[in-house]
Design brief:
Largest sheet: none
Keywords: Membrane, Transmembrane, Transmembrane helix
Radius of gyration: 26 Å
Order of helices and strands: HH
Distance between the termini: 67 Å
Helix content: over 70%
Number of helices: 2
Length: about 60
């Protein structure tokens, strides 16, 4: 039973360490991406043309 708990707590500690590392790295990437995003051109979004004759034939 002691062996089980030892392995269990080691795995929990490794998991917590990896989670912390992942969160820190993700924050760094988000900061880099949001800094670059201001310089990027805005994308244009065009409306769908749902009144086309091909769409009406399908209905």
């Amino acid at each position: 039973m002691t062996t089980f708990f030892t392995i269990f707590f080691i795995l929990i500690a490794v998991n917590a360490g990896l989670l912390t590392f992942s969160v820190v790295m993700n924050k760094r990437r988000q900061a880099e991406i949001s800094g670059d995003r201001n310089d990027a051109a805005q994308e244009k979004v065009y409306p769908l043309d749902l009144s086309s004759s091909e769409y009406r034939k399908a209905i």
